[in-house]
Amino acid sequence: MIMRIFQVTAKEGKEEEFGDFFHNTAIPLMQGTEGIVQVLPGAARADSPREFSFVMIWKDLASLKAFVGDDYQSAHVDPSEAELVESRSIKHYDFVE
């Protein structure tokens, strides 16, 4: 299994708008995606109000590539999210049970 950690920093002043997108669009989308075994969303905290993340456990690399394409090392975002995001990062690991 593949662990994919996706982290986003919302633009200053866009925290609330991104939070709405995160809770109402991104989380349901990822929870309903074929090939994902588990989704662990992380919402912003008071000490880091612009930072959000997902830890996703994918069944295998083929499932991940079926969702994002061959360029799975890049952070793929919904077009409606792009104007809300200052930066994003993505990392992959072999999941250890």
From TrEMBL:
Q: Which Pfam families match?
A: ABM
Domain called ABM: residue spans: 1-77
InterPro entries for the chain: ABM_dom, Dimeric_a/b-barrel
Q: Coiled-coil region(s) at which residues?
A: none
The name this protein goes by in its record = ABM domain-containing protein
